[in-house]
Amino acid sequence: MVEKTEGKKKLSSGNDQDDLEPLIEGLLENRDSLEAILNLFGKVKNSGLISAMENLSSEFLPSDIEFLSNFLTSRDFLYGFVKTMNVVSALSHSLSSEKASDAIKAILFNSDELWDGMVSGAKNPEATSLLRLYAMVKDPDISAGLTAALYALKAIGSALRKVPEE
């Protein structure tokens, strides 16, 4: 109790106002940044993230929180997280290419044809001889798809040869 009353006495002394002036000046100089941070916190609060975190922390016992903190800071988790982020960044990099995004759009916008053809072929299989296969390869669409698949396999093989062995 004595320490608290001494702290209150220190706050009421005239020197504290001198200590607060540089702090207030710094806050006023960075007013725009502080307003941006407050707006960001407001958006996070309005999104419900803060209340979700409060609910999570109130529903778990301290031992559960300790387990979660140990798990989330464990070497295995962090290693897996870094590896996942590497994959996500590589995926986003590859999808940012105009050619890749155009190819994916072309396939996805025509996916009904793709799925219908796959289902129809599976439900109504036809005997395939070498002569029939040769005739099918002469179809420009089949030839284009087969060539694309073979070039994709070549690129995958080339890329996989660069992966270091453990």
Please provide the ordered H/E string of secondary-structure elements.
HHHHHHHHHH
The major β-sheet equals: none
The share of residues in helices is: over 70%
Q: Between the first and last Cα atoms, what is the distance in angstroms?
A: 63 Å
Number of strands: 0
Q: Any low-confidence stretches, pLDDT <50, length ≥5?
A: 1-12
Mean pLDDT: 83
Class from secondary-structure proportions: mainly alpha
List the total number of helices.
10
Rg result? 31 Å
- Inertia-based shape: elongated
Keywords:
single chain, 166 residues, mainly alpha, elongated, disordered N terminus
Entry summary:
Helix content is 85%, strand content 0%.
Report what the structure shows.
With 166 residues, this protein is mainly α. The protein has helices at 2-11, 15-29, 31-47, 49-59, 62-72, 75-96, 98-109, 111-123, 130-137, 140-161.
